[in-house]
Design goal:
The structure is a homodimer of 148-residue chains. The first copy, chain A, has 148 residues and is mainly α. In chain A, 58% of the residues lie in helices and 0% in strands. Chain A is built from 6 helices and no strands.
Amino acid sequence: MASSSSSHPSAPCAACKFLRRKCIQGCVFAPYFPPEDPTKFVNVHKIFGASNVSKLLNEIAPHQREDAVSSLAYEAEARLKDPVYGCVGAISVLQRQVLRLQKELDATNADLIRFSSSQSISTTPPSSQPNSHVSPSSNYGSTYSSWS
Amino acid sequence: MASSSSSHPSAPCAACKFLRRKCIQGCVFAPYFPPEDPTKFVNVHKIFGASNVSKLLNEIAPHQREDAVSSLAYEAEARLKDPVYGCVGAISVLQRQVLRLQKELDATNADLIRFSSSQSISTTPPSSQPNSHVSPSSNYGSTYSSWS
């Protein structure tokens, strides 16, 4: 989290270098856009614009800025790779995975219960009954609005 | 997909109204930012900037622009709700759900196999063996780089 002025007395941060401006002490970009990684700022700038990123960073607490820049960089990279869907494409794929896995889990649990019941009828009950793996926290789909 | 000039001959689209400019025939924003929904453009403009959105729309095929605007609007809304993580927060939650469901599915399948084996030893095999619900497409985690 050291600013460019302390770790690189003479090197401007990647943002100031790209924007061709003096990297002053307390530059809002410097702690998160080191000169060694120019692509990170180029991507974020291309998708969100330097002014919007600067505004956003100033609006959030300093201890959360690193996470904010990481998520912006992730979104920017996803949008550059997929200009139509960006990282919303990943959300869509993950939502389908969750639905498919939940369906598979429901089917497996149903098999387990059916198998256990049929065995109970034809034989003496086994010493340990199988456990149904439906956790109460499996309320997928309720946290985020669906993208499809 | 009708442009504002055809559906609303006198009303500028939400983007041109917000930017206080004349909404000309062929305006790149008009088909996707109708005057009835001003918030959609305000959000997208606040996060990405009108210029970046315009550039993006011009770079992609017309038939994909509606999806692109929808995904930008989704991302913008998510970033306004959660300035630190934006829609990357949703990716993180969904990735954890996928991992948890896969773990539960693996445990249930293991139970099913164990239960079936113990029954086969003590009794005659049941008429139908349970099926293990591990689909070959369950390669979660390989499609998108993890965010955590």
